[in-house]
């Protein structure tokens, strides 16, 4: 049973359990996709029924960030722990490498996916990079066909929300991959273009503030967090 946070249903799992489930899905017939909503995406889903539908349609929905964890606790339905998409992806890559499976990287600016693939392959011996493509494409069909021909087992789809979730729901089956993961800006991190917050900031739930200090232009997006908390408080009163 999923934990409802303002309409988005989250799987109540630890990081270890999330990775184990991702690994299981990789070895299960059919196509599956993973969504990693944060408060900003939850707010988007409140305004966009189609986005809400595709996020909730994911085989695995993981809370990306401390805001979702605090929101769930305020609603009286706590989640076990935050499971940031970038950390889930890193651990899943390790499992792909162990099993000799292949990964396709889709998204970011031209050149970033290639850099990310090179660095991941060096870091995880045994990982096979099936192919890459930037996120600046106008037609889905050539990209989908490229992934299908690559024979990728897993695809990291980094197009930003809700574009990546809509893309996975629409095209996942045609790619031939078993598992697709919507991971926002993760390719920039894997490529070394963007640094994650130091452990202290992350451990204390301040990764968002660290990123804001590094990228002040994110202020408009960060304002979704207080709005999210206002909506959580309203929902808490409604549930009483």
How would you describe what is shown here?
This protein is of the alpha/beta class. Helix 8 links the parallel strand 7 (154-158) and strand 8. The protein is globular and about 55 Å long. It contains 13 helices and eight strands. Strands 4-3-8-7-5-6 form a six-stranded parallel sheet, sandwiched between helices. The protein has a two-stranded antiparallel ribbon with strand order 1-2.
- How many individual domains? 1
What is the strand content? 5-15%
**Biggest pleated sheet:** 6 strands, parallel
Number of continuous helical runs: 13
Number of strands: 8
CATH superfamily: AF0625-like
Beginning-to-end CA distance, first to last residue:
21 Å
Q: Rg from C-alpha positions?
A: 17 Å
Helix content: 40-55%
Strand order of the largest sheet: 4-3-8-7-5-6
CATH fold-level assignment? Rossmann fold
CATH class: Alpha Beta
Give the averaged pLDDT, no decimals: 92
CATH architecture: 3-Layer(aba) Sandwich
Structural class: alpha/beta
- Pattern of helices and strands: EEHEHHEHHEHEHEHEHHHHH
Which stretches are poorly predicted, pLDDT < 50 over at least 5 residues?
none
């Amino acid at each position: 049973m999923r934990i409802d946070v303002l309409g988005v249903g989250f799987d109540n799992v630890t990081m270890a359990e999330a990775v184990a489930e991702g690994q299981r899905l990789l070895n299960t017939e059919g196509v599956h996709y993973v969504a990693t909503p944060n408060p900003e995406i939850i707010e988007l889903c409140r305004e966009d029924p189609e986005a809400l539908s595709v996020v909730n349609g994911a085989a695995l929905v993981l809370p990306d960030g401390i805001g979702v964890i605090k929101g769930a606790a305020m609603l009286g339905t706590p989640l076990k722990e935050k499971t940031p998409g970038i950390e889930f992806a890193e651990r899943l890559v390790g499992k792909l490498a162990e099993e000799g499976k292949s990964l396709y990287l889709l998204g970011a600016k031209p050149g970033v996916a290639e850099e990310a693939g090179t660095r991941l392959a060096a870091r995880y011996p045994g990982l096979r990079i099936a192919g890459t493509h930037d996120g600046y494409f106008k037609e889905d069909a050539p990209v989908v066909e490229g992934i299908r021909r690559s024979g990728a087992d897993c695809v990291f789809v980094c197009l930003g929300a809700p574009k990546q979730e809509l893309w996975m729901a629409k095209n996942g089956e045609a790619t031939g991959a078993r598992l697709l993961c919507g991971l926002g800006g993760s390719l920039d991190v894997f490529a070394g273009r963007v640094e994650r917050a130091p452990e202290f900031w992350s451990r204390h739930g301040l990764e968002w503030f660290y990123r804001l200090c590094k990228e002040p232009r994110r202020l408009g997006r960060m304002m979704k967090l207080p709005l999210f908390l206002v909506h959580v408080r309203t929902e808490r009163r409604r549930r009483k």
